[in-house]
């Protein structure tokens, strides 16, 4: 599988100290919010929102990179996932989040990236469908990666973890 390790764990995206970058399930203005964005901004401190002002707004599917401030990582990659059933085609826009985030990490020479389940909270994307899209996007992007060696999905519950784990096992088989 092109030498890239892909894993799923249960945990908090804002507490992944061994990863070069964590991905924020951001809003268009890159402001602190609820869920993932709330956890990332509160752990990073107010400097993150300040830096993000110059990078906003972003569109669905887009990814931008900032420093990590007080987070234990080198960078935060901010992705705007699609609002399910509103930003269409949702599956393509969600896949672009994963692809653009990975390519951005790679262009910055990063070795490890941790993702939350983008769009599956407030944005309403059904978890199993989102997991399938994520694994397909990874499979499509892995051959283009040079520096990235570890991709981690960080899920918030045991149930979410098993859905992503299952998608990983079927989605990347044969790679
Ligand atoms: P979106 O607006 O893209 O839907 P959310 O932050 O509302 O993003 O939720 C995305 C997913 O992340 C949901 O499955 C939610 O349960 C999960 N989540 C929320 N907080 C955290 C966290 N601190 N670490 C990891 N996952 C989280």
TrEMBL record:
All copies of domain Macro, residue ranges: 1-172
Stored InterPro entries: Macro_dom, Macro_dom-like
Region forming the signal peptide: none
Name by which UniProt lists this protein: RNase III inhibitor
